[in-house]
Amino acid sequence: NAIESVNSSFRKVTKQGAFSNETAVFKVFYLRIKELYQKWHGHSIRNWAIVMNQLVIDERIGTMVRKYQVSI
Fold first, then answer.
1. What is the spatial distance between Cα 72 and Cα 70, in angstroms, rounded to a whole number?
2. What backbone torsions phi and psi does residue 42 show, to the nearest 5 degrees?
3. Distance in angstroms (rounded) separating the CA atoms of residues 34 and 5
4. Cα(16)–Cα(18) distance, integer angstroms
5. Closest CA to 36 of 72, 5, 69, 1
6. Which residue pairs from 10-18 have beta carbons closer than 8 angstroms and sit at least 24 positions apart in sequence?
7. How many angstroms separate the CA atoms of 54 and 40, rounded?
8. Superkingdom of this entry's organism (predicted)?
9. Angle, nearest 10°, between helix axes 59-68 and 48-57?
10. What's the predicted TM-score (pTM) here?
11. DSSP 21
12. How many CA atoms does the CB half-sphere of 5 hold within 13 Å?
């Protein structure tokens, strides 16, 4: 699961040390997100057409999905 993978990644970077304040933690999260984005950028999502069709069925979600839809 992608969400569990991200959460696991966050736990790994926060476990490595003590942080002086909340901003320091946010900076570490930001850097980790950038690393994850570079790792996942360009990969195709399996069965994406099926997922999109299921999301578009619900009218509320469908308008949001269409607004941000990007061709892969």
1. 6
2. 95, -15
3. 15
4. 7
5. 5
6. none
7. 23
8. Bacteria
9. 130
10. 0.56
11. S
12. 7
Burial class (CB in 10 A: 0-12, 13-18, 19+), 32: middle
pLDDT tens, position by position, 11-23: 998 887 788 898 9
Tens digits of residue pLDDT in 15-50: 877 888 989 889 999 999 899 888 887 777 778 778
Give the DSSP per-residue string, 4-63.
Answer: HHHHHHHHHHHHT---SSHHHHHHHHHHHHHHHHHHHTTPPPTTHHHHHHHHHHSHHHHH
Of 42, 66, 70, 44, nearest to 55 (Cα)?
A: 66
What are the C-alpha distances in Å from 31 to residues 4, 18, 19, 65? 18, 16, 15, 27
* Amino acid (one-letter) located at 35: E
Give the amino acid at 58.
Answer: D
Question: CB count, 10 Å around CB of 17?
Answer: 8
